């Protein structure tokens, strides 16, 4: 019998927690919330910056800057998820942007989540795994990278230039990673229901909620235990709030907190507000 879809959760309208103080954070594109370091957000800039990560407090203070000894062609999104060492959270950085759809491959960088120190540091390339990935059907532009905490699989959601075009879901499974394979698996299309291009997303730490956003809107899919990601996203999505354009001039980031009861957004642009949306039911 088909899996019954859980009901839609409700979230309050966004509250401003603070503003991003660091002027270096000019185009916040990737965002995750730490699950082991309370009230810590990780963020990176869009294309044009060097390879670096910023640790921010949820009220916008700069806590640390880490320089990564890897290229940054078009970093678009970041995910937090499991990796080879039990009990360690890993950051996955998606160098997956391709506005003109001309790249032969894209790269996802994996590194253990840094433990904050008093000042920033450099992270050597030897401590970062570079996964060079290829689509099975040619090039795609994408701004969304997801990590499934239940399986360790990585997912890329494509961004279509003209909505409502087909938004596609690709998987890089934990088994493919272990085998050293580099081809992404095409899973199918996601129906966003009169939606938006997809600019960011996240999966809650328990794997039970999937969240995607665009410049104008956000959509959420509850996921039943044991259900595949594509199976969950075959259902009609729940509409959940984001601030969106024009108040958020270019919203390309979204992230759940550690318990999945809040999510955060911050727009590209200097000294942008950090918004929190709290579950209301």
Shape: globular
Element-level helix/strand string: EEEEEEEEEEEEEHEEEEHEEEE
Q: Roughly how much helix do the residues carry, as a percent range?
A: under 10%
Query: Structural class, judged by helices and strands?
Result: mainly beta
Strand residue percentage: 35-45%
What's the arrangement of strands in the largest beta sheet? 2-3-4-5-9
Largest sheet: 5 strands, mixed
Termini gap: 28 Å
Record field, number of beta strands: 21
Number of helices: 2
Average pLDDT reading: 93
Overall radius of gyration: 17 Å
Low-confidence stretches: none
Short description:
This protein is mainly β. Helices cover 4% and strands 39% of the residues.
How would you sum up this structure, described in words?
The structure is a single chain. It contains two helices and 21 strands. Helices cover 4% and strands 39% of the residues. The strands form five sheets. It has a five-stranded mixed sheet, with no helix packed on it. A four-stranded antiparallel sheet has the order 1-21-20-19, with no helix packed on it.
């Amino acid at each position: 019998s088909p899996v019954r879809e859980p009901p839609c959760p409700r979230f309050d309208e966004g509250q401003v927690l603070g503003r991003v103080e660091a002027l270096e954070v000019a185009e916040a594109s990737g965002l995750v919330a730490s699950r082991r370091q309370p009230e810590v957000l990780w963020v990176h800039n869009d294309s044009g910056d060097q390879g670096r990560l910023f640790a921010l407090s949820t009220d916008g203070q700069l806590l640390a800057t880490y320089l990564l000894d890897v290229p940054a062609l078009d970093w678009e999104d970041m995910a937090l998820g499991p990796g080879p060492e039990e009990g360690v959270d890993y950051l996955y950085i998606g160098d997956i942007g391709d506005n003109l759809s001309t790249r032969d491959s894209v790269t996802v960088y994996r590194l253990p989540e840094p433990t904050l120190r008093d000042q920033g540091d450099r992270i050597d390339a030897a401590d970062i795994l570079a996964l060079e990935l290829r689509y099975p059907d040619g090039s795609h532009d994408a701004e969304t990278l997801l990590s499934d905490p239940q399986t360790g699989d990585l997912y890329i959601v494509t961004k279509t230039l003209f909505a409502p075009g087909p938004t596609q879901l690709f998987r890089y499974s934990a088994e493919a990673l272990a085998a050293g394979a580099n081809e992404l698996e095409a899973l199918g299309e996601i129906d966003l229901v009169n939606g938006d291009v997809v600019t960011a997303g996240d999966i809650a730490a328990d794997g039970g909620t999937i969240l995607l956003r665009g410049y104008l809107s956000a959509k959420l899919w509850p996921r039943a235990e044991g259900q595949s990601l594509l199976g969950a996203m075959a259902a009609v999505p729940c509409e959940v709030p984001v601030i969106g354009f024009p108040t958020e001039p270019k919203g390309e980031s979204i992230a759940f907190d550690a318990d999945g009861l809040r999510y955060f957004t911050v727009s590209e642009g200097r000294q942008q507000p950090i918004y929190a949306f709290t579950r209301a039911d």
